[in-house]
Structure formats: C-alpha cells, structure tokens
Design goal:
heterodimer; A: 563 residues; alpha+beta; Sulfite Reductase Hemoprotein, domain 1; 5-stranded antiparallel beta sheet; 37% helix; B: 169 residues; TIM Barrel; 8 strands; 20% strand; globular
C-alpha cells in the first residue's frame, strides 16, 4: 500500500497542528461559529444529534493492520469502543469530544491516517473497487490513480471552497463495484482501439434529493492528462456551480442546467490551457506510485488447493459461506474473502441502550482481531467496501477454512453477501441529526423476518438499500429495492422504490406507491418478493424480472388488500 | 482597515477607493477633482471613465465581482496596477479561480488584493492562488495571523506560487 514519504508525513502533521490552533482559537472566541463550522468540516468533524462525529479518510478503502489497531485504540481511549464504516469506504467515530479531536488526529497521523477533506464542500476521499488488484478482468489496478488524484486534491488551494461536496470514484473492472455512475466524477480505466490504457470520464452523477446518472464527458483521456482534465472540470464547477441554494449546488445540477454538451465545451476550452502543463503526469511519477501497489509475495500454486476442495465437499456450512462470501482471485490458490458487517441481533453490542448494532459497525475488539487475522492470512491488509463490508483480498485457499472459523467466532461470517439481508442501511433517527425516520429497528425487523438462508439464496442477488432521509446516504435510489424513511406526523413511514442499480447497468428506482407504516415493512418486502418468485423466468434476478415487467404487478400485490 | 501585503502588515495604503456606497454601486461618471493618486474603481467606472483614468496622475485598480467573466478584462491588464477580488462570504471560493487565472493563465504582474471576508484561515490558499494583498476587517486582524502563511509548508499540487506539483519539485 502507499506509504507517505517524509514530506507527505510532514504535511499531515502540520495539518494536525493547524487544526489544533483553529480549535483553540474557536474555543477562545476568536473564530465565529459559522466560520469554524466550515473549518471543522474540512477536517471531518460534524456536530450530530448526540455528539460530534469525526470521519476519517480511508483512501480507496485500503487499511493496514497497524491502522486497524490504531482505530481500535483511539475508539477505546477517546470514544465508546466501536467505529462505523461508511458507504464511501471511510470510517467514523461517533462520540469524540470536540476539544480532543486534535489529539485524536495526532494519534492517527502516526499511522498515516487523517481526516482531511472527509466532509465539507471540497474534493472528498477517492473511492474504488474493493477487489482492485485481484480481479482477473480489470484493465489495471485503479488504486495508483486514486492515489495520484488524492495527492492532487489534498489541500488544493483553488478547490477547497466549492459550491458543494465533490466525490470521485475510479474503477477498472467490467462490473462497477465503485458506483462510478452516481459520483460527481466517475472514472473508468479503459483500453482504446489502439490498445492504449486511459480513462473514460463521467460527470454529474449523484444521489440525494435529485438522483442523476452521470454522463460521459469524454470517452478517452490519456493517462498523463487525467489530473489536468479533472482540474478543468473542477474549475468550471467552482466558477459556475450554483451557490444560492445548497440543494441545487452539486455539479449534477449545473450539468443538467446547461446540458452536458455546453458543460463539455467549457471544460475543454479550459483544458486547452491545463493540458500539457506542469499538471501532466510524468513516467517516473506514475511508476513511483504504481510501485507501492505491486502484488504481494504470492506463493506459487498449480491450481486449487486440495485440502480446500476437500473441505468444500465435506463441510456444507463452509461451502455455503465460500459460495456467498468469497470472490475469485486472479492468482491460483488464492481467494478474496468478504467479512459481513451487518445488523444482526445475535452479535449486537448493546451500545447506548440502542438494541441494534448498525450496519458497518465494528467493536474495538473485533478491529484488533481482524488486524491479527489480516497479519496471519492476508499480507496485513484489509479493504473497506462501498457496501459497508470489509474484504481480506489475498487469502491462501489453504488458510480459508481457519479464517472462516475465526470469522464465525467474531460474528463476521454470516453467509449473506449479495442477498437481501446484506442491506446497506444508514444510522437513521437513532444517531443522525438529519434523519427523518428510524432505520435500525426496521433493518432488525427485516433481518428477523428473512433469517431463512435457503429463502435468501432462492431470492438470489438482491441489493436492498435503506436511507432514513432524502439525503440518501444508503443510496436507496440505486437499490434493486430501495426504502426511504419519511416522517408523517412524527411517525416513521417508508417509501419503496424498485428497479435501481449502481453497477454497470445503472438505473434509478421508481417509486412503488404511497409510503407504508413501520410495522408493515417486512410484510411489504415479502409481498414484493412473492410476486418475483411467481413470475421470474429461469435464472432471472429480481432486477431483471423488474425490468421485464415494471412496477405494476408489484404495486398491485402490495396495495391490493387495503383499498 | 488593516492591510497585509506580501505577507507583512502594510502601514500605508496608497489606494483611494471610488467605489462608493456598495449598494448604490458608486457614481458611474467620475468628476475631474476625484481623479488624483492611485484609484480603485469598479468595472463600470473603468468602462465609463477610461481616458480620464488613464491620463490622470496615478495608477488605476479595478475591483471585480466573483462572477465576472475575466475575458472582458484581459486586454486591460497591462493598464491596471491592482485588481481587487471579492470574497463575499467565508464559504465562497470563486475568486480563488479568478486569482489563479489572472496570475497563471494571463500572466498578470500587478497587485491582486482580496477584499470582503478575508481572515486568517484562508490566507494561505489565497496566497497560493496568486493573491498578494489582503484587506482584513479591524476586529479580525492580529499580528499572529501572519503565521497562516507558514502553517503548512508542503504543497502536493501546483498553483500560482509554484506551478510544480510534488512530482516536479
């Protein structure tokens, strides 16, 4: 993984001291509230319903075991002993004290972690494919490019006071696991007709109040000019993006307002000046960054491990988990393993009187244990995923059985990846000051109703995403089934959308009908799924059936009984 | 109003503003007795009084809004000794782009002055974008704020102060 050199390390240490001084001046009354709000957001600190929330960057999801242990340590010393992984692969502390945040950041800087630009109207951390580097089909590893973009964006003097937040994702595989079509800029590493590797660039995607699928701005940008191209997009956005209404300030609104063709014209007129400038990447820089992402020292195996194959035949529970929670590795004898970080009552730590453990949460002891397992089985690295799980990407097949046993004990081996209960779910009313509705209790309701694994497997691939408000942190618009919590006279109600997708065939879900009360959520899901089971053809996934038949049959079933 | 120029407190400001009452937009046609010394005028005043301003005994500066299209100004750059950029509120960063374009793309050599919401925590970014003068509200000025320029000494990307990204430094 990428390691900061002396100067980069100096930068994050200086940033900690700069923020320490900003906090001191704020507490001394020298910085007004409005101004400090923006300064703390630039450093990842929100003020939430109960307490501040500090978001730490995990660039493109990559974490070392050393960093995991530091997160565990910080959560013990400064917080309540757990952390929360987000849909943009970052990690959050939910209970830090404002005065202690500079000390927390100082601790994190010792393992090359920081909170720079994890919130606020600036370029956020770059996200990517959790299986980068191990997917056979990828054009090349996207992470070096994420890293080069990260460096360009870090404390960028021109683009730290943008109209609104700005999110970039990079992917290189055919299946899009980074949701590039719903990012402000989506970058796909592609090969052109002459075999040259470069970037297809999408712009203006996003969720929130106004969900939009990103549009292609340029089919191919040569590798060395990717930073100049992004810089030109950011400049046009900075100068022309709306600032009068925060709900209309994302780049998607600008692109829609003037049209992609006009937007492209503006960007490319600017690019005439930025291309072939100092921003052009050099061979030596590209090679330097790539050298940090070389494959680890894999052992050589001819084909699959016999012991592993044998366990698959003799232990059906293990086989079931392997089928659901692992991913093929491009190197023979290796496999990538997904740890399920899901709401589930059995494993819930009784945090703060809440009965539920939120999706994406890990306790400090789980973090330490994962760090040990990563050291033993996966070259000391893990990845956080956009779907709020965690991945050990380089596990020897001969080690997988022991790893599975250990993960089972940690409550991280439920074989549900890709199924209905592998749902993305925001923290909702229990934790978030923006939320309109409860989500954790509803997730629990769903989890309890659909606990029959055979049923889950029969349903097959299903992306369920639930947000507790219109800000759509759980990306409900791009769930095969999306659930949006709304408030009706102080009661939580839930609106269903069907047919969304965040992958290569991206689409936005359509609203099924009026919202339904909380106690009916699992019933409603069951009705939707019963229609699917009745009318699906052969191996059709839910999303395929939906695309074939549309909303009508589902709507009819869900609203049939209460005319 | 305290003024910082080239990272130091400037005791004297040679510039007289003819911008007048912001809400009224200032007088558009200037009278002859106003034309003396270094004058900061609005874009409209500059347009309407060009010959008089060019021939008076002093330098001319223009203040532009942050949604101003720089293209209109480019031909006049060699006649202007100061361009004042407006930062209306702490969250608004449009003038950062204007500053970089003036310095890096159009090669403007004169003074670029930040006016409006100009405080400690954006000085370094302003400096990096090519701004070299800063008008600070009285109640927000302190000599300590000059430290802002030294808080972060590493720059990963190029800007007006040094166009080289870290891989070319």
């Amino acid at each position: 993984m990428y390691v900061y050199n002396e100067r980069e390390q100096q930068l994050i240490e200086e940033r900690v001291e700069q923020y320490r001084d900003q906090t001191r001046r704020y507490l001394a009354g020298e910085i007004p509230e409005d101004e400090f709000r923006i300064l703390r957001l630039h450093n990842g600190l929100y003020i939430q319903r109960h307490a501040p929330m500090l978001r730490i960057a995990i660039h493109y999801g990559l974490l070392s075991s050393k960093q995991l242990r530091k997160l565990a340590d910080v959560s013990r010393t400064y917080d309540k002993g757990y952390v929360h992984f987000t849909t943009r692969q970052n990690v959050q502390f939910n209970w830090p004290k404002l005065e202690q945040v500079p000390d927390i950041l100082g601790e994190l800087a010792t393992v090359q972690m920081h909170a720079i630009q994890t919130s606020g109207s600036c370029v956020r951390s770059v996200s990517s494919d959790q299986f980068a580097g191990v997917v056979a089909s990828e054009v090349e590893d996207p992470r070096p490019w994420c890293e080069m973009i990260r460096q360009w964006a870090t404390l960028h003097p021109e683009f730290t006071y943008l109209p609104r937040k700005f999110k970039i994702a990079v992917t290189a595989a055919d299946e899009d696991r980074a949701a590039t079509q719903v990012h402000d800029i989506g970058i796909r590493i592609v090969r052109n007709e002459s075999g040259e590797v470069g970037f297809e660039v999408l712009v203006g995607g996003g969720l929130g109040r106004t969900p939009v699928i990103g549009k292609q701005i340029r089919p191919f940008v040569e590798q060395k000019e990717i930073l100049s191209y992004i810089e030109s997009i950011l400049r046009i956005y900075n100068m022309y993006g709306r600032r009068d209404n925060k709900f209309k300030s994302r780049i998607k609104i600008l692109v829609n307002a003037i049209g992609i063709d006009k937007f492209r014209e503006l960007v490319e007129a600017d690019w005439e000046h930025t291309r072939n400038s100092e921003l052009r990447l050099t061979d030596s820089e590209i090679n330097r960054v790539k050298s940090y992402f070389k494959p680890p020292a894999y052992e050589h195996f001819d084909g699959s491990d016999a012991g592993f194959e044998n366990k698959l035949k003799t232990d059906p529970e293990f086989a079931r988990w392997v089928e659901r929670n692992t991913f093929n590795h491009k190197v023979p004898g290796y496999i990538a393993v997904t740890l399920a970080l899901r709401v589930h009552s059995e494993n819930s730590n009784n945090l703060l009187g809440s009965r539920f453990k939120a999706t994406g949460n890990l306790s400090e002891s789980q973090l330490d244990a994962i760090a040990d397992l990563a050291d033993r089985y996966s070259f000391g690295e893990v990845r956080s995923t956009h779907e709020q799980n965690m991945v050990m990407a380089d596990v020897k097949q001969s080690d997988v059985y022991s790893l599975w046993k250990a993960l089972t004990e940690l409550g991280l081996a439920r074989p549900i990846i890709g199924t209905l209960t592998d749902m993305i779910c925001c923290p909702g009313l229990d934790f978030c000051s923006l939320a309109n509705a409860e989500t954790l209790g509803v997730a629990q309701q769903i989890d309890e109703r659909f606990d029959d694994l055979d049923y889950l497997y029969d349903i097959g691939e299903l992306k369920l995403k639930m947000s507790g408000c219109i800000n759509a942190c759980a990306h409900h618009h791009v769930g095969h089934i999306g659930i949006l919590g709304v408030d009706k006279n102080d009661e939580s109600y839930y609106q269903f959308t069907l047919g969304g997708s965040a992958t290569k065939d991206a689409s936005l879900g359509k609203v099924l009908g009026r919202s339904i009360p909380k106690e009916k959520v699992a019933d409603t899901l069951e009705k939707i799924l019963s229609v699917y089971i009745e009318i699906r053809q052969e191996d059709e996934r839910f999303i395929d059936t939906y695309r074939r038949v549309g909303n009508a049959p589902f709507k009819e079933r869900v609203y049939a009984t209460d005319h | 109003m305290p003024l910082i120029i080239n990272q130091q407190r400037a005791e004297l400001d040679s510039w007289t503003s003819l911008l007048g009452d912001e809400s009224a937009g200032g007088e558009e046609v200037l009278s002859v007795d106003q034309l003396s010394g270094d004058l900061l005028v609005s874009w409209e005043q500059w347009q309407k009084n060009r010959p008089a301003l060019l021939s008076h005994d002093g330098r001319v500066g223009v203040k532009i809004d942050n949604d101003f299209e720089l293209g209109d100004l480019i031909e006049d750059l060699d006649k202007l000794s100061l361009i004042a950029l407006e930062f209306p509120v702490f969250s608004d960063g449009r003038a950062f782009s204007q500053a970089r374009l003036l310095r890096q793309r159009y090669g403007y050599q004169g003074e670029i002055r930040a006016v409006g919401d100009v405080t400690w925590d954006r000085l370094r970014f302003m400096h990096r974008c090519g701004i070299n003068a800063y008008e600070i509200a009285e109640d927000r000025y302190s000599d300590e704020m000059l430290e802002a320029f030294q808080e972060i000494t590493v720059q990963l990307q190029g800007a007006a102060d040094d166009p080289r990204p870290i891989y070319r430094q």
